[in-house]
Design a protein that fits this description.
With about 60 residues, the protein is an alpha+beta fold. It contains 2 helices and 3 strands; from the N terminus they run αβββα. It starts with a helix and ends with a helix.
Length: about 60
Amino acid sequence: MLRSGGLLAARRDELITLDGDAPLFRVPAKRVKKRRVIEQPLSSLAVEIIKEALAGDA
């Protein structure tokens, strides 16, 4: 589970292998309460939403 502060500040370079078998969101330690990197797996629905948002951003 991610805190909203860590998630809302997401950057494109923190989204890893969106087109791969195991897409994930890597939250850097500086935005995590316990100061450790979190690698959050992304569901297929999350990847679909992210891709749609990134396409609309271009």
